[in-house]
Write a structure and sequence with these properties.
With 139 residues, the protein is α+β, with helices and mostly antiparallel strands. It contains three helices and five strands. A hairpin with a 4-residue loop joins β3 and β4.
Length: 139
Protein backbone atom coordinates (compact mmCIF):
# COMPACT_ATOMS: atom_id res chain seq x y z
CA UNK A 1 0.00 0.00 0.00
CA UNK A 2 1.46 3.36 -1.03
CA UNK A 3 1.07 6.45 1.12
CA UNK A 4 0.17 9.79 -0.36
CA UNK A 5 2.54 12.37 1.16
CA UNK A 6 0.06 15.22 0.65
CA UNK A 7 -2.51 13.38 2.74
CA UNK A 8 -0.04 12.79 5.57
CA UNK A 9 1.12 16.41 5.67
CA UNK A 10 -2.46 17.69 5.64
CA UNK A 11 -3.29 15.52 8.66
CA UNK A 12 -0.43 17.04 10.66
CA UNK A 13 -1.39 20.56 11.39
CA UNK A 14 0.08 22.57 14.19
CA UNK A 15 -2.22 23.88 16.86
CA UNK A 16 -2.88 27.54 17.35
CA UNK A 17 -3.39 28.46 20.99
CA UNK A 18 -6.17 30.98 21.60
CA UNK A 19 -7.35 32.88 24.64
CA UNK A 20 -9.42 35.94 25.50
CA UNK A 21 -7.66 39.26 25.93
CA UNK A 22 -8.36 40.12 29.56
CA UNK A 23 -8.02 43.82 28.84
CA UNK A 24 -11.47 43.38 27.26
CA UNK A 25 -10.66 45.65 24.34
CA UNK A 26 -13.11 45.54 21.44
CA UNK A 27 -12.33 44.42 17.95
CA UNK A 28 -13.04 47.50 15.80
CA UNK A 29 -14.60 45.45 13.00
CA UNK A 30 -16.72 42.85 14.80
CA UNK A 31 -17.25 44.57 18.15
CA UNK A 32 -16.33 41.35 19.99
CA UNK A 33 -13.64 41.02 22.63
CA UNK A 34 -10.25 40.66 20.98
CA UNK A 35 -8.45 37.31 21.15
CA UNK A 36 -4.87 36.46 21.89
CA UNK A 37 -3.28 33.69 19.91
CA UNK A 38 -0.03 31.77 19.74
CA UNK A 39 2.65 32.46 22.32
CA UNK A 40 0.83 35.53 23.66
CA UNK A 41 -2.09 33.33 24.74
CA UNK A 42 0.26 30.93 26.53
CA UNK A 43 2.11 33.82 28.21
CA UNK A 44 -1.20 35.17 29.50
CA UNK A 45 -2.13 31.73 30.82
CA UNK A 46 1.22 31.43 32.64
CA UNK A 47 0.74 34.83 34.28
CA UNK A 48 -2.80 33.92 35.32
CA UNK A 49 -1.69 30.62 36.83
CA UNK A 50 1.05 32.28 38.85
CA UNK A 51 -1.25 34.99 40.18
CA UNK A 52 -4.14 32.65 40.99
CA UNK A 53 -4.33 31.37 44.54
CA UNK A 54 -5.77 28.01 45.55
CA UNK A 55 -9.59 27.98 45.93
CA UNK A 56 -10.02 31.06 43.69
CA UNK A 57 -11.20 29.12 40.66
CA UNK A 58 -14.75 27.82 41.12
CA UNK A 59 -15.08 24.01 41.05
CA UNK A 60 -11.27 23.62 40.76
CA UNK A 61 -9.72 24.47 44.13
CA UNK A 62 -6.50 22.68 43.21
CA UNK A 63 -5.61 25.11 40.41
CA UNK A 64 -3.31 27.90 41.49
CA UNK A 65 0.21 28.55 42.65
CA UNK A 66 -0.26 29.52 46.28
CA UNK A 67 2.64 31.97 46.14
CA UNK A 68 0.67 34.81 47.70
CA UNK A 69 1.44 33.43 51.17
CA UNK A 70 5.18 33.49 50.45
CA UNK A 71 5.13 37.17 49.47
CA UNK A 72 4.64 38.10 53.12
CA UNK A 73 7.64 36.10 54.32
CA UNK A 74 10.98 37.83 54.99
CA UNK A 75 12.93 38.46 51.78
CA UNK A 76 15.65 35.85 52.12
CA UNK A 77 17.39 33.57 49.60
CA UNK A 78 15.35 30.69 50.99
CA UNK A 79 12.10 32.50 50.16
CA UNK A 80 13.38 33.09 46.62
CA UNK A 81 14.01 29.35 46.24
CA UNK A 82 10.56 28.47 47.60
CA UNK A 83 8.90 30.93 45.20
CA UNK A 84 10.81 29.54 42.22
CA UNK A 85 9.91 25.95 43.17
CA UNK A 86 6.21 26.80 43.62
CA UNK A 87 6.14 28.50 40.19
CA UNK A 88 7.91 25.53 38.57
CA UNK A 89 5.50 23.03 40.15
CA UNK A 90 2.47 25.05 39.08
CA UNK A 91 3.60 25.32 35.46
CA UNK A 92 4.61 21.68 35.17
CA UNK A 93 1.32 20.44 36.62
CA UNK A 94 -1.23 22.86 35.14
CA UNK A 95 0.22 24.15 31.86
CA UNK A 96 0.89 21.31 29.38
CA UNK A 97 1.71 23.75 26.55
CA UNK A 98 4.87 24.89 28.35
CA UNK A 99 8.27 23.17 28.36
CA UNK A 100 10.03 24.93 31.22
CA UNK A 101 13.68 25.95 30.89
CA UNK A 102 14.30 28.12 33.94
CA UNK A 103 12.63 30.11 36.70
CA UNK A 104 14.65 32.77 38.52
CA UNK A 105 13.36 34.83 41.45
CA UNK A 106 15.19 37.84 42.90
CA UNK A 107 14.04 39.67 46.01
CA UNK A 108 13.86 43.45 45.91
CA UNK A 109 13.32 44.29 49.59
CA UNK A 110 13.34 48.07 49.11
CA UNK A 111 10.27 47.82 46.85
CA UNK A 112 8.67 44.94 48.81
CA UNK A 113 8.58 42.86 45.64
CA UNK A 114 10.17 39.96 43.82
CA UNK A 115 11.37 39.96 40.24
CA UNK A 116 10.36 36.75 38.49
CA UNK A 117 12.02 35.66 35.27
CA UNK A 118 10.52 32.62 33.51
CA UNK A 119 11.99 31.09 30.37
CA UNK A 120 10.15 28.32 28.52
CA UNK A 121 9.32 26.82 25.15
CA UNK A 122 5.77 26.72 23.87
CA UNK A 123 4.78 23.43 22.26
CA UNK A 124 5.11 23.70 18.44
CA UNK A 125 7.08 26.96 18.72
CA UNK A 126 10.84 26.81 18.09
CA UNK A 127 12.06 29.88 19.99
CA UNK A 128 12.11 30.31 23.77
CA UNK A 129 9.66 32.71 25.41
CA UNK A 130 10.62 34.90 28.37
CA UNK A 131 8.30 36.43 30.94
CA UNK A 132 9.84 39.10 33.15
CA UNK A 133 7.41 40.29 35.83
CA UNK A 134 7.17 41.50 39.41
CA UNK A 135 5.26 40.04 42.33
CA UNK A 136 4.25 42.54 44.99
CA UNK A 137 2.63 42.24 48.37
CA UNK A 138 -0.65 44.06 48.46
CA UNK A 139 -2.92 44.49 51.44
Amino acid sequence: MAYDSTKISSERQSRTWKDLNLNFSKNPVTGDITKLSGTEAVKRSVRNLIQTNHYEKPFHPEIGSGIRDLLFEPATPLTEIFLAKKIEETLVIFEPRVRLIQVAVTAQPDENSYRVWIEFYVVNHPTPVIIDTFLERLR
